[in-house]
Specification:
Distance between the termini of chain A: 53 Å
Largest interface: A-B, 52 and 54 residues
Low-confidence stretches of chain A: none
Number of strands of chain A: 8
Shape of chain A: globular
Structural class of chain A: mainly beta
Radius of gyration of chain A: 14 Å
Helix content of chain B: 25-40%
Order of helices and strands of chain A: HEEHEEEEEE
Distance between the termini of chain B: 21 Å
Structural class of chain B: alpha/beta
Largest sheet of chain B: 7 strands, mixed
Radius of gyration of chain B: 23 Å
Oligomer: heterodimer
Helix content of chain A: 10-25%
Shape of chain B: globular
Chain lengths: 104, 492
């Protein structure tokens, strides 16, 4: 059997649900954070920086660094490493501060 | 507005902040001794970072395989469940405390929920700070690329989400967490070609009596070493990742040998391919809630600030205790011992036999580790002018150099005011150690920030003045009922 994190702990997860990332359906296991669901799909970046427009994703994984911010269900600046992925959640890559609608 | 319907009218006897090893041990021991406790933690489940584990829905039937000493955690969790059922402990999950306020005892203000949806206030006669630590980072070219993560972060995402950042993961930095991380990652199916340790492990050999006095530590190290041998992981000493390569994600790294001061040795560079890199230079105590109140600190041998506590875990603030990593990073065994010690002290009882000696032995080992992995002064030798040092504000080493050399900044605070380094979301936690070093001056004291985490403005606006000591009772704050399916959306 191929060694995987799930195989290591003999996980028997409940059926996956679906979240949407930039319009693309992504499976998420119940109990996974949004960042974990994205990593599982090989996605490492879901934000661009305010100054250089550079891609960023999860860095510290524990809610300290704020690099993993994204827009979730229309709310910008959500820490995806802490936020559980709920069925039907819509995640969009956050451009800069995520408040383009305020024209600031 | 009490957080919990069961909060006693006069507040709790003890509020423990942090439900990792130290906080858990403290809360259940204090409850054993008859104290009414609140256990607040930012996470959804107890365990902190060390015992971080998947949500029940992920159905991990063998969670112990990602842990060392998992049985100690299940024993503590079992005791907590019994105390919770009996009404002696309220476990307040997803409560992130952002300030502590003196008010006839203490008032703790927290945001509640993973998106900080609502505010909460907890009143307690005594507080124990068991907020653990976060990782020290030293920047290098390419460290902001996706796929470069912290060593602790790779472990955290694995332990709670059962995911990996890539298939072929290099680990680099300094400290025992790298070995523990590599051991977990290979067990979970990752290929780990190299663990690059910047320090020289011979540092431990200077005082051979200290590690020998803590056989548990040696046993844990042996377990990791065996896993690394089995999976053919190469452990390189005096080696650092001096650059991560890639455009939109990391595709490889350059390793270089270091001299005694951690300066890269020209001509020793080697490039290896990888699709993820996990980096970290040990841990830094997370003590903002106490330093903001003026608590005394001490410098640990690796240059970090930790809270100064007495033999009974008391800080310099009345009614304010600390245990575990907040008193200097030393690992889970030490945290468990100190949490228990603090609980006896808060309850006004003498400590259980053997606890004080155990703490002393483990503290001595922690100080030895800190000295062995202290970052060398030559690490800025791997920076380039365009290397981002502050990740949040995208401030480069070149701009920090201008502030220091051109504008005469001599400390991290002045550099912050001139460049914005350390002014971002993470409140300087990721770049603080590096900026302090590049500013040339040894920091006079730890960072002081009124808010320990970003707080929605709407919640700050709702904060009432706390009652004066001559006005007993809890302040009645505007209530925000949490309707199922509808989260209050603070305007921030």
């Amino acid at each position: 059997m191929r060694r995987t994190p799930a195989a290591l702990v003999r996980a028997q997860p409940r059926p996956a649900h679906t979240i949407e990332f930039d319009g693309r359906p992504i499976p998420a296991l119940p109990g996974q954070s949004i960042a974990a669901a994205l990593w599982a799909e090989g996605i490492l970046a879901w934000r661009t920086t305010r100054v250089g427009g550079r891609p960023r994703g999860a860095f510290c994984g524990i809610g300290v660094c704020f690099d993993c911010l994204a827009t979730v269900n229309g709310r910008p600046n959500q820490r995806t490493c802490l936020l559980p992925a709920g069925p039907g959640d819509t995640v969009t890559t956050q451009e800069g501060h995520g408040r383009a609608d305020l024209a600031v | 507005m009490p957080t919990s319907p069961s909060e006693p009218a006069a507040g709790y006897d003890l509020a423990v902040i942090g439900a990792g090893p130290a906080g858990l041990a403290a809360a259940v021991t204090a409850a054993d001794l008859g104290l009414r406790c609140a256990l607040l933690d930012a996470g959804p489940r107890t365990g902190g970072q060390y015992y971080r584990h998947p949500a029940p829905a992920l159905g991990a039937t063998r969670p112990e395989r990602l842990h060392h000493g998992w049985r100690r955690y299940t024993a503590l969790a079992g005791r907590l469940a019994a105390h919770t059922l009996a009404g002696r402990v309220d476990h307040l999950a997803e409560h992130q405390v952002w300030t502590a306020e003196r008010a006839d005892g203490w008032l703790l203000h927290a945001t509640v929920g993973p998106a900080a949806e609502r505010p909460a206030t907890v009143r307690a006669r005594a507080v124990l700070l068991a907020t653990g630590a976060y990782e020290r980072q030293l920047p290098f070219p390419g460290w902001t690329l996706p796929g470069v993560v912290t060593a602790g972060g790779a472990q955290a995402m694995l332990k709670s989400g059962l995911v990996l950042p890539g298939r072929r993961i290099v680990l680099a930095g300094s400290g025992p967490l790298l070995l523990a991380g590599a051991s977990s990652l290979v067990g979970a199916g990752a290929e780990v070609p190299v663990v690059a340790e910047a320090a020289d492990y011979l540092g431990y050999a200077r005082r051979p009596g200290v590690p020998a006095a803590v056989p548990g530590k040696l046993a844990e190290g042996a377990v990791h070493a065996a896993a690394l041998l089995r999976h053919r992981v190469r452990l390189l000493r005096r080696t650092a990742v001096v650059e991560a390569h890639g455009t939109d994600r990391v595709t490889g790294v350059t390793l270089a040998r270091l001299d005694r001061d951690w300066r890269p040795l020209p001509g020793t560079e080697r490039r290896i391919a990888c699709d993820a890199l996990a980096v970290g230079h040990g841990l830094l105590p997370q003590i903002e809630l106490a330093t903001e109140l003026g608590a005394e600190t001490r410098r640990t041998p690796d240059g970090a600030f930790a809270l100064r506590v007495d033999a009974r875990q008391r800080t310099s603030l009345p009614g304010f205790w600390a245990a575990g990593e907040t008193c200097g990073v030393g690992g889970a065994d030490l945290a468990l011992a100190e949490g228990e010690l603090a609980a006896y002290a808060v309850a006004g009882r003498p400590p259980a036999a053997g606890l004080t000696g155990r703490r002393a032995r483990l503290r001595a080992f922690a100080e030895l580790m800190a000295a062995a992995h202290r970052p060398g002064p030559g690490w800025p030798g791997w920076l380039r002018p365009d290397t981002e040092v502050c990740r949040c504000e995208e401030v480069t080493a070149g701009r920090i150099g201008e502030a220091v050399d051109g504008l005469g900044a001599g400390d991290a605070r002045t550099v912050k005011l001139l460049t914005r380094a350390g002014m971002g979301w993470c409140q300087g936690r990721m770049c603080g150690a590096a900026v302090a070093c590049l500013s040339g001056g040894a920091a006079g004291g730890p960072d002081s920030r009124p808010l320990a985490v970003p707080v929605p403005l709407g919640q700050l606006g709702q904060l009432e003045r706390s009652p004066r000591p001559d006005q007993p009772g809890r302040p009645d704050q505007p209530d925000q009922p949490d309707r199922p399916g509808r989260s209050a959306r603070p305007r921030s």
